[in-house]
């Protein structure tokens, strides 16, 4: 049997001596501060995880990858790996120029020769790579609302690895894993990709997959960037470590992969396969809806449940890594064991139990029992430590609406009611307070208003993370900014969007601060509802009408909503 999977693969790092010299020279180059996603990509470029790529894709490679999942020379590669930058930065560069790539602390990780610079067709990229130009997809949202407008391509010279202070002993480069497999004599290795905590069904299916492939098992979780709202990687790794004891040590190992996932379903599965092949694996488990991002704007799944397996199967020979298809495992109560759902012959005579991810999150949120047949007590204990019941977690209430709609008044009333109940600190981040203390230097251009809302979101996410209640009441006219704030906060707790749906006519009639009058006279430029748009929230958690309704009952509606979501304990 071939042992090609065990011999070293090329890396993009230079020797230690050259790196010291390069580092000194790179200090004088124009430098780009990498985003968290770009750092993940660069690490896997440099250590061979993205072999055969030698750097960020050139325009010809990018076009070819987007169009037909292949580099310009025909090599299979499904995912555009691009260095996206702002237009201002791109304009400073000459083609052929070297730039330094720095991490967020300013450490130079690599240099790159810019051979290509272009403005991509992002709508086409979204359509081809993710299957739809639909902002409900986290990577499409990232593409349009976070990624820079210009892509740079060119070869990369690695100077040093990105620094990780956490779980260092569990992180391995492709060559370190290959050396480990050589050392322990593993010739066949099946990799299991995961971004969620492992429960008993996963353990059962990984056991079966390893047995079926007559291979050793590498649990290879992603700790780079996953999907907004996923359990944080620190908690997940502690959960994995708790489960590792359940596996035979001689045939199972775990390594962490610093990958920024795109949640691209079928293409992502092929990409994951190629990355695992580079890490020395011979087999790869692909599940139902592998790396699917959930529902699209129409409320349907982005990809069919077996699309990823079909695309992988089509290319596995060329990839040189075999797929083990992952069965949907369910618990059969009478036999007290997990079995593949489609292999149960006596379905009508047995009790089949299964807990979905959504149901698990609900049980954790409400502090309900999680049965032992579903998960290991050690894993549940770890999850409960990070995610106490909702009524003990921090959360954010985010009011949005026109100027003069009554947001601040309702927010103040809500704050007082929550303080009366006690139990958690409450902070009000009202538009005027924030403008004075956080954003005094900002004007009212779209860019500055976005920045102001992002600052509010940042402070609210820190309050939420630390178990407090944040009440925000800015105008927040733009849906994409509100979504970004929601993602920041939902990493730590609940985000409750309340649309104060007072009509523009009513707000103008009230005009407490005389702002509408000034806007009509053209003395205030870019005024929401008059000369600047307001994106009405499509699915707020709550919409309140303030015309002919007193403030107290509006605040009470919000309290009832919080109670129904389990965020505050019901009053007896």
TrEMBL record:
Pfam families, A to Z: APS_kinase, ATP-sulfurylase, PUA_2
Domain named ATP-sulfurylase PUA-like: residues: 9-160
Keyword presence, Nucleotidyltransferase: yes
Listed GO MF terms: adenylylsulfate kinase activity; ATP binding; sulfate adenylyltransferase (ATP) activity
Binding-site list for ATP: 401-408
Keyword Cytoplasm: no
Keywords for the protein's UniProt record, in alphabetical order: ATP-binding, Kinase, Nucleotide-binding, Nucleotidyltransferase, Phosphoprotein, Transferase
GO cellular component: a single term: cytoplasm
Single GO BP term: hydrogen sulfide biosynthetic process
Class of the enzyme per the UniProt entry, highest EC level: transferase
APS kinase domain sequence ranges: 393-544
Domain Sulphate adenylyltransferase catalytic: start-end pairs: 171-385
Reactions the enzyme catalyzes: sulfate + ATP + H(+) = adenosine 5'-phosphosulfate + diphosphate; adenosine 5'-phosphosulfate + ATP = 3'-phosphoadenylyl sulfate + ADP + H(+)
Pathway: Sulfur metabolism; hydrogen sulfide biosynthesis; sulfite from sulfate: step 2/3
Lineage top rank: taxon: Bacteria
EC numbers for this chain: 2.7.1.25
InterPro entries on file: APS, APS_kinase_dom, ATP-Sase_PUA-like_dom, P-loop_NTPase, PUA-like_sf, Rossmann-like_a/b/a_fold, Sulf_AdTrans/APS_kinase, Sulfurylase_cat_dom
NCBIfam families per the UniProt record, alphabetical: apsK, PRK03846.1, PRK05537.1, sopT
Known function: Catalyzes the synthesis of activated sulfate.
Record family assignment: Belongs to the APS kinase family.
Protein name: Adenylyl-sulfate kinase
Naturally occurring in which organism (per UniProt): Roseobacter cerasinus
Lineage of the species this protein comes from: Bacteria, Pseudomonadati, Pseudomonadota, Alphaproteobacteria, Rhodobacterales
């Amino acid at each position: 049997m071939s042992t090609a999977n065990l011999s070293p693969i090329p890396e993009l790092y230079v020797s230690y001596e050259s790196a010291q010299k390069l580092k000194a020279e790179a200090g004088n180059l124009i430098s780009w501060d990498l985003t968290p996603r770009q750092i993940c990509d660069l690490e896997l470029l440099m250590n061979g995880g993205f072999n055969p790529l030698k750097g960020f894709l050139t325009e010809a490679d990018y076009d070819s990858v987007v169009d037909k999942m292949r580099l310009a020379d025909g090599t299979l590669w499904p995912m555009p790996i691009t260095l996206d930058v702002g237009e201002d930065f791109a304009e400073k560069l000459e083609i052929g120029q070297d730039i330094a790539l720095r991490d967020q602390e300013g450490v130079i990780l690599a240099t790159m020769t810019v051979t290509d610079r272009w403005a991509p067709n992002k709508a086409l990229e979204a359509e081809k790579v993710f299957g739809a130009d639909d902002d409900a997809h986290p990577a499409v949202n990232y593409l349009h609302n976070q990624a820079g407008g210009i892509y740079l391509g060119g070869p990369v010279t690695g100077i040093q690895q990105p620094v990780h202070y956490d779980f260092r002993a569990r992180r391995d480069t492709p060559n370190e894993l290959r050396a480990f497999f050589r050392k322990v004599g593993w010739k066949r290795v099946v990799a299991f990709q995961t971004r969620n905590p492992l429960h008993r069904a996963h353990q059962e299916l990984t056991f079966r997959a390893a047995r079926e492939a007559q291979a050793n098992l590498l649990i290879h979780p992603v700790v780079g960037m996953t999907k907004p709202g996923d359990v944080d990687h620190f908690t997940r790794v502690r959960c994995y470590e708790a489960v590792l004891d359940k596996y035979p040590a001689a045939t199972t190992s775990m390594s962490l992969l610093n990958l920024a996932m795109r949640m691209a379903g079928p293409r992502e599965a092929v990409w994951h396969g190629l990355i695992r092949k580079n890490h020395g694996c011979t087999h790869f488990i692909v599940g139902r809806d592998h790396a699917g991002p959930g529902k699209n704007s129409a409320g349907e799944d982005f990809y069919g449940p077996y699309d990823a397996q079909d695309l992988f199967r089509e290319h596995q020979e060329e990839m040189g890594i075999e797929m083990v298809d992952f069965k949907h495992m369910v618990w059969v109560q009478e036999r007290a064991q997990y079995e593949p759902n489609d292999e149960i012959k006596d379905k009508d005579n047995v009790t089949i139990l299964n807990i979905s991810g959504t149901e698990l999150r609900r049980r954790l949120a409400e502090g309900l029992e999680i049965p032992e047949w579903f998960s290991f007590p050690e894993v549940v204990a770890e999850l409960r430590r990070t995610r106490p019941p909702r009524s003990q977690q921090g959360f954010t209430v985010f009011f949005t609406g026109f100027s003069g709609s009554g947001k601040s008044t309702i927010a103040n009333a809500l704050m007082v009611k929550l303080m009366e109940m006690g139990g958690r600190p409450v902070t009000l981040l009202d538009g005027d307070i924030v403008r004075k203390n956080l954003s005094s230097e900002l004007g009212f251009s779209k860019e500055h208003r976005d920045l102001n809302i992002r600052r509010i979101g940042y402070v609210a996410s820190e309050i939420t993370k630390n178990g407090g209640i944040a009440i925000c009441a800015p105008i927040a006219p733009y849906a994409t900014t509100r979504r970004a704030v929601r993602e920041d906060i939902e990493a730590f707790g609940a985000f409750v969007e309340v649309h104060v749906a007072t009509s523009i006519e009513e707000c103008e009639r009230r005009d407490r601060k005389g702002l509408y009058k000034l806007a009509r006279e053209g003395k205030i430029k870019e005024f929401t509802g008059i000369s600047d748009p307001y994106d009405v929230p499509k699915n707020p958690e709550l919409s309140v009408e303030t015309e002919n309704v007193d403030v107290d009952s509006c605040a009470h509606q919000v309290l009832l909503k919080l109670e129904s979501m389990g965020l505050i304990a019901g009053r007896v």
